[in-house]
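Long-time lurker. I teach an intro course on protein structure, and each term I like to show students one example going from raw sequence to a predicted 3D structure in token notation. This year I'd like something fresh instead of my usual example. Would anyone be willing to generate the tokens for the chain below so I can use it in lecture? Attribution to the forum is fine with me.
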Amino acid sequence: MTEKPKILVIDDEHSVRWAFEKALQKANYEVALADNGLKGLNLYYEFKPDITFVDIRMPEMDGLQILEKVMGDDPKALIIVMTAYSDMETTVNAMKLGAYDFLTKPFNIDECLSLISRGLAARNSTKIAELGVQAPKSSALKGNSTAMQEVYKLIGKVSGEDVSVLVCGESGCGKELVAQAIHFNSHRSTKPFWPINCTAISESLMESEFFGYEKGAFTGAATSRQGMFELAQGGTIFLDEIGDMNLEMQAKLLRVLEEREIVRVGGNKRISVDVRVIAATNKDLRKLIAEGKFREDLYHRIKVIEIKLPPLRERVEDIPLLARYFCSILASQRKGVPKSMSDEAIKLLCEYSWPGNVRELRNVIEQSYTLSRDQVILPEHLPIEITKCINQNNNKILVSSLSNSKTDSLINNSTQEQQINSELPKNNEDSGKTTSYESTSETPEDVAVKMLIKRLLERAPDGDAYSYVLSVFEKELLYQSLENHKRNQVQSASHLGITRNTLRTKIEKYKL
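-- Reply from a regular --
Happy to contribute to a lecture. Here you go:
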């Protein structure tokens, strides 16, 4: 027989304990109650609950003291703090001490039950989270997709050959990681790998940064200094965003690549350099050549081999691997119980278009990992811009699927009434009843709504059409209201004319 989940409630208010006891027992949980902090703490170690609800202000020992003590002994504990005083300092302190969540009184008991379900799901996934915390020891370049397998093959082929390589791809794809993989798999791996961002260095300083300078070459040059080509002697120089390099510097770089010699600024001595050059760009260099902004001879010199790195949206199957990898990196760097991604959160990540590519994905994982109080990162922990974009795309898909070219013309055409009537059943001459629309009183919006409902009814499950159609409209109504009020639930609930508890329940229902 499956053991019931254990819930401990520590609160000095009898009414709160009574409400919890009735609701939790009805939901088939095993419940323990304590009317003050000290009793509650002792009961925690005796009862060993799965989830604990604890009030902040209580006699003998307050909720934050209980939280600090329990989390110090058991970092995996799931403790939900309750208070009627929702000031910022109390909330921040509770979350810093490791509280799983924070509830402000009065609250809806259904909200608590939903929170318990989520907490138990996170607790049951702890073992899965701990299995995934070991960071892979291989290269930071990750992906098992067909597109990435082709990239790996090229890396393997060119690593052993001392040729120039051009890595092309959108910003954030990981072009520097490709360059590192080539370098560390080559015979130059024991020598320096020197990355240079051509966008970050001003034109006036680029020559001295690349080739160094002699003492007295310019004001402030009190001593001689080696440039990057000398510092990378025997190794690899990675020229990132080479498409942003000015034409004068392009000519000097071409000469160095051809002659394998540099001259420091203010000097006249030729210095031999032995470096491999790997360049990268997120621009179309052929287009820049046609516009006179990039030298064609330099293009052919740096592009002996070209590696095209696909954007993340074209290798969606790699997103779960990358997300879990970034989680494992963060787990190894931070204190506390390791966290992992839930399947639901991964699914949402796979639906996003990732304009910032892998760099954006890493930032999203780091943000979610930092803000999540769960041991498993759930959809609600993802940044709002991710879920907002996905909801907008889903809404577009919904409207597109419900509409057709005829519907569009109905909305925009001045003869929409006649077209609607031709789509609908004809007048019943025998009964005298009509099903035509009155064009004199309808707006394009009225027409659009009627057509959408018609499409929804066509696809609604038999026997459940009413709730199906209402749920589609309710979800969109709630979403737009929340967006209009910048996710402020109090303002949104007031605008909609419902209670905040009702709104929060529906947010949970529709995962908004």
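Some talking points for your students: Residues 465-484 form the longest helix (20 residues). DSSP finds 23 helices and 16 strands in the chain.
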